[in-house]
Amino acid sequence: MKTVNEAIDYLIAQAQVTQQIESRSLPQALGCVLAQPVISPVNVPPHDNSMMDGYAVRTAEIQPGLVMPISQRIPAGTQPAPLAPSSVARIFTGAPIPAGADAIIMQEEAELRDSGVCFNQPIRAGQNIRCCGEDIAQHHEILSAGHKLRPQDLALIASVGQAAVEVYKPLTLVTLTTGDELLQPGQAPEPGKIYNSNHTNLMSLVSQLGFDWVDMGQVEDTLEATQAALSKAAQLGDVIITTGGVSVGEEDHLKPAVECLGKLDMWQVKMKPGKPLAFGEVMGKPFIGLPGNPVSAFTTFNLFARPFLLAMQGASCLTPESIWLTADFDWLNPGFRLEFVRARIENREQTSFARIYPHQGSGVLTSTVWATGLVVIPEDTPIKKGDAVEYISFNALSH
Length: 399
Description:
Elements: H1 4-14, E1 21-25, E2 33-34, E3 38-39, E4 49-50, E5 54-57, E6 70-74, E7 88-91, E8 103-106, E9 110-113, E10 116-119, E11 129-130, E12 141-143, H2 151-159, E13 164-168, E14 172-178, E15 182-183, E16 194-195, H3 197-208, E17 212-219, H4 223-236, E18 239-243, H5 254-261, E19 262-268, E20 271-272, E21 276-282, E22 285-290, H6 294-312, E23 323-327, E24 338-348, E25 351-356, H7 366-370, E26 373-377, E27 388-393
Parallel strand pairs: 6-7, 14-17, 14-18, 15-16, 18-22, 20-24, 23-25
Antiparallel strand pairs: 1-13, 2-13, 3-12, 4-11, 5-7, 5-8, 9-10, 19-21, 21-22, 23-27, 24-25, 24-26, 26-27
Helix pairs in contact: 1-6, 3-6, 4-5
């Protein structure tokens, strides 16, 4: 039985980074992974500029109560003349600093007079000036290869004048469903059958991570049909993912079908929920078989499939950040497996508590909706109310 970390490390080690690279405009690059670093061709800001509306001054000439004439007006986007001796310049936020000026006095600290303006507040050189390149220096790397692009990253790239980036082409994931007992949402209920929630769950998780997705639909429960579907899936995409059906029962055809077309490793992972996990390849394309129980499929996708897929996509950040909270529950009968318990954060009395859902069964899909993340309970470790517990937010798993 593999530990969770052993299984994750093994999967990441097997991931081969895609070699497909494409140029995308910034609006089309959200969620993509940079294939090359972004180097700024310019300084940001490109020139010394004013942090606020006010007056550009030469500090050596300013005396309390001395009225100074206003020699020019400098809006943002204009090129000023040098500051005339014994004068000030009216300046606006973002406007270039005129040569000779060494400070900006905000307009609230100025007193307008008929012949100009005077100041009574202390003044120091450099105040209220943004210096050229203080945010980004020319030729500086602002984002590294392997970075998954967020809205703020795209804004940063735009700030250096770059309109497109080189990214890894998003992987195409192919999913298929087996099981004659499954009904699709919208169909009428039938005795002995259940609705297929894993299909929607998997589709949403894949899309949320920015991958493309091809749905093979529901496959007839025969070896021939399963083998034909897997063969087609290997031609359509980069990775094949299924939920359930990878077992040794007479009606479980995925295992022999995968083995006919490639190879399959089946593990038991020392965790709960989601002990069974399968990994292999079909005609050279990676295959991941997730458990069939809805919560188990949800959890194992996030813990195992997610880092594997991100590694294939070229992403450098694979492990979700976790935080520590105060337990608002007792867990006095721990098991021998690492447990991932659905929980939510509650803030009370300046303390963040972890509260767990009362029903933690692997088929209780409502727990994933109620919860905001997972509390990690180590093997053979009882938890008492007030103990510190590790918490992984669903938000940290969504990108």
